[in-house]
Design goal:
Elements lengths: L18 E4 L6 E4 L3 H23 L3 E3 L5 E5 L21 E4 L21 H14 L5 E6 L2 H11 L4 E7 L17 H13 L1 H13 L5 H12 L3 H12 L2
Parallel strand pairs: 4-5, 4-6, 6-7
Antiparallel strand pairs: 1-2, 3-5
Helix pairs in contact: 1-2, 2-3, 4-5, 4-7, 5-6
Amino acid sequence: MRQRAGRFSPGGHRPAAQGKFVGGPTRSTLRLRVSPTVAVSIFSTKYQRHMSSDIIKRNNVKTFGKGTQPMVFAHGFGCDQNMWRFVTKAFEDEYRVILFDYVGSGQSDLSAYDPDRYSTLQGYADDLLDIIRSLDLRQIIFVGHSVSCMVGVLAANEEPERFENLIMIGPSPRYINDGAYVGGFEKKDIDGLFEMMDRNFIGWANFLAPAIIKNPDRPELGAELTESFCSTDPVIARKFAEATFLA
């Protein structure tokens, strides 16, 4: 006995999904008609999950901690997320800690490096926002070191509703002196820095790292920063230096 399309349901109820049965008395097949809106929604959800996974891998994102309010720690030039290992322990019990590496640093995905995107600090701010969106972070306490302070400002200016506080460690909106403004460097100093990087990158790293650390009684700190500098691709480091010091 054939059932009329869309009318049969065990127990006498109309099926929830609209469709029709085809076939003989021993075989019935339900063909579901999925609306375009539902299909797009399913595809969009899968795409967002895929993109989120790519971003987490691209920036080597790590999350941990017992709290719910996010604290995002952003490293400075020549470093990676490892620099925060002595700091984050103080916040793990009360906050959700998020660490990441900028593309080209640490254990990030080097294949994702785009010289045009990362020619300015906006490219790094876009990466930060990508991470924030992929994790859907709100009420963020952002902790930035050195150049990441300005990266955080750029991101917060773009989506201020996601940020609660900005904590800046060693910030500078501009590193080059300009009239009455004191950035700390003359343009010729920065040009000399770039020239040294081009001529002898390892020598540049060995010279600059201890000078930045300024802890002669703890030479292991300078050695760690030197190693971090040297582990970065020289071309990428040069580009990041330009974005940092010429911003």
